[in-house]
Design goal:
Layout (H helix, E strand, L loop, with lengths): L2 H16 L9 E2 L2 E2 L2 H14 L3 H6 L6 E2 L7 H11 L6 E10 L2 E9 L3 E11 L2 E11 L23 H17 L16 E2 L8 H14 L3 E12 L2 E10 L2 E12 L2 E11 L14
Parallel strand pairs: 3-7, 8-12
Antiparallel strand pairs: 1-2, 4-5, 5-6, 6-7, 9-10, 10-11, 11-12
Helix pairs in contact: 1-4
Length: about 290
């Protein structure tokens, strides 16, 4: 076990087993209270740099509900996961970070048991993290449009439009991806303009249509059955959905950028949901 993993695992074990409440050492920056999304960024970066302070300061040591089904519940489960990582193997680059009420969520490039793109969602109570969800997908270097799975704008704009943008995107996913009312598709976009970061779908609305048609021609199932959560900040909206891909139960995390009341850009990850007998916790994916 590497020194980094030892440091993190020891902090996690002490907090979880002993229930020690340590006063935050890094909760403030220059006297200003940190936003929840800043706490999350510090926590994720600590997976690479080994700093124990974010784990100690930002996670509730007696309540940490885990929805990554490969990880056991609580801080001890997270500590056990970190202990498995080879020394110096974890790399983290948080590309986008947002918050919506008691939730903070991120879009991250990982080197974590191989290169991956992931979304992480954290729920806070009284300034402490008490619950975590994520969705990870193996990294594909280039999309058909020449993008990567994670590049593009990062600046949050139009914060006053958050709720309107969430409503727009929720309606899009419901109409188009869940109910397949393709006659409504054009109304969500500015003409054919649509930047696509899915590693298998071309740019433009016409590219989206052709990708759906190609899947159908090959007999490959793509079904969005249920929306579990819609989170947003300004012009970015994340939708968490459950469904199936190629007849396998699948979690879909879709991030949309909205511009002037129309969907302008899309990033996503898809992750197969394992059989319940393989779960390391009983909390479920969603």
């Amino acid at each position: 076990m590497g020194k980094q993993s030892l440091r993190i695992a020891s902090v996690l074990t002490l907090a979880a087993v002993a229930g020690i409440a340590v006063q935050p050492a890094s909760a403030d920056v220059k006297g200003a209270k940190m936003e929840n999304k800043e706490k999350v960024v510090a926590l994720l970066n600590s997976l690479e740099n080994g700093d124990p302070a974010p784990v100690r300061d930002y996670i509730n040591p007696t309540k940490y509900i885990q929805h990554n089904l490969a990880v056991a519940d609580g801080l001890q489960g997270l500590g056990a996961l970190m202990a498995q990582l080879p020394k110096g193997s974890t790399k983290v680059r948080v590309v986008r970070a947002f918050q919506d009420g008691d939730f903070a969520f991120t879009h991250v490039e990982y080197e974590f048991f191989g290169p991956k793109i992931g979304f992480d969602i954290f729920r806070f109570e009284n300034g402490k993290i008490v619950e975590h969800w994520d969705n990870l997908q193996e990294t594909v270097a280039k999309t058909p449009g020449g993008h990567t799975m994670i590049d593009g704008p990062t600046e949050i704009r139009d914060r006053g439009m958050t709720e309107a943008n969430k409503t727009l995107v929720n309606s899009f996913v419901t109409d188009i991806l869940v109910n397949r009312k393709m006659d409504k598709l054009a109304g969500y976009f500015d003409g054919d303009n649509y930047i696509q970061h899915n590693p298998h779908v071309p740019d433009k609305v016409s590219g989206f249509r052709s990708a759906l048609a190609a899947l159908a021609d090959k007999g490959i199932t793509l079904k969005f059955a249920k929306i579990h959560r819609v989170l947003g900040e300004g012009n970015f909206v994340l939708v968490v959905s459950e469904g199936a891909f190629a007849d396998k139960p699948t979690a879909f995390y879709d991030l949309f950028r909205v511009e002037k009341g129309r969907i302008a850009e899309h990033w996503d990850t898809m992750e197969t949901i394992p059989d319940a007998k393989e779960w390391r916790n009983s909390n479920g994916k969603f």
